[in-house]
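User: Here's a structure from my thesis project, written as structure tokens. My advisor, Dr. K., wants to see whether a designed sequence matches the one we expressed. Can you design one independently, without my sequence as a hint?
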């Protein structure tokens, strides 16, 4: 932070757009480093973040896997893992909402906003750091999946694209989490609210069971919600199958989330005090 302040003092009073953009990037990276240092100094936080998706992998693979049958004579673990990875990316955003609510309540955000730094850096740095944490968690879960029999059968390129899609999906949910964390401002309330909407949305989808096994009235919802489109696209990238229809629907939903909740998160940040 000291280096960034020194750079500002050495520049003219009316810096151009390029200089301001450079400052914003430096400030964002500084805040990202700050947030990552918190995790390195409290490694239990990252461990507990990873434990939940690993438990889901093991429970669904060995407890429910024998009772759930999927089409195409594929192993259930191949059907399961894209759903687990999508859920992992979504649930990792709980940390975004809780951390922002904590920092807002403790006055950390007010202190950061009073410093000579880009106003966007606090929110952007949080999102970048949380995306990095999300990527680490997803890669660990992929490793656990390989240990219990999962395989990418569609090639390395689609496998990488599946991970990228999971990250974009998780980042879109991060924007919702950032908005709720800043708007509600209480960590316990934020966590309870996240459970209310995120758990049903992931479980009432194609993440863990074929939608055809659900009651007819529930299939209508499960077939037409963003988690299903994203998971179906990830599954097709991982093990093969038609991609285009679900991919375009996924892109439309994710773009809509970014368009709606990006400005809402920024507005909530500006109004937070």
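Assistant: Designed independently from the structure alone:
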């Amino acid at each position: 932070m000291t280096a960034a302040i020194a750079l500002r003092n050495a520049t003219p009073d009316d810096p151009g757009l390029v200089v301001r953009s450079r400052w914003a990037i430096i400030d964002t990276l500084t805040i990202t480093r700050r947030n990552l240092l918190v995790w390195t100094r409290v490694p239990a936080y990252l461990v507990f973040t990873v434990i939940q998706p690993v438990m889901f992998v093991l429970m669904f693979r060995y407890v429910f896997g024998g009772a759930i049958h999927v089409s195409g004579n594929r192993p259930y673990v191949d059907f399961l893992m894209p759903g687990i990875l999508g859920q992992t990316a979504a649930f990792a955003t709980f940390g975004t909402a809780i951390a922002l609510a904590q920092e807002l309540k403790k006055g950390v955000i007010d202190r950061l906003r009073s410093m000579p730094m880009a106003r966007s850096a606090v929110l952007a740095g949080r999102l970048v750091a949380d995306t990095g944490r999300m990527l680490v968690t997803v890669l660990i879960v992929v490793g656990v999946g390989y240990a219990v029999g999962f395989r990418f059968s569609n090639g390395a390129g689609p496998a990488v694209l599946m991970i990228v899609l999971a990250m974009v999906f998780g980042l879109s949910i991060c924007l919702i989490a950032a908005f709720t964390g800043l708007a509600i401002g209480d960590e316990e309330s934020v966590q309870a609210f996240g459970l209310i909407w995120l758990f049903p949305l992931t479980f009432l989808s194609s993440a863990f069971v074929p939608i055809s096994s659900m009651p007819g009235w529930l299939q209508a919802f499960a077939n037409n919600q963003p988690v299903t489109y994203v998971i179906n696209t990830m599954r097709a990238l991982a093990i093969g199958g038609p991609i285009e229809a679900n991919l375009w629907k996924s892109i439309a939903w994710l773009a809509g989330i970014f368009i709606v909740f990006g400005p809402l998160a920024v507005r909530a940040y500006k109004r937070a005090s």
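When you compare it with your expressed construct, this may help: The mean pLDDT is 85.
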